[in-house]
Description:
By secondary structure, the chain is mainly alpha-helical.
Amino acid sequence: MPSLSAEILALKALTFLAQSQDELERFVALAGIGPADLRSRADDPELLAAVIDFILADDRRLTSFCESLGLEPKAIHLARRALPGA
Length: 86
């Protein structure tokens, strides 16, 4: 798979989380936002950084996400460095 921009990769991560109600609810709770906020801030670089942080926080989640896109975990770490707060 060609290289993805950090923002696109984070949006793909958000889509990945949205496929599991439990994971999405866990993320929203940890981020301290509501579902409406999530929709309205989906293009916010700080929120996207939080999505990547959430993916990186659990090895099983990270592995599953990487497998879904055919990426190596290094790509996720590199994307995180390109987003705010790294």
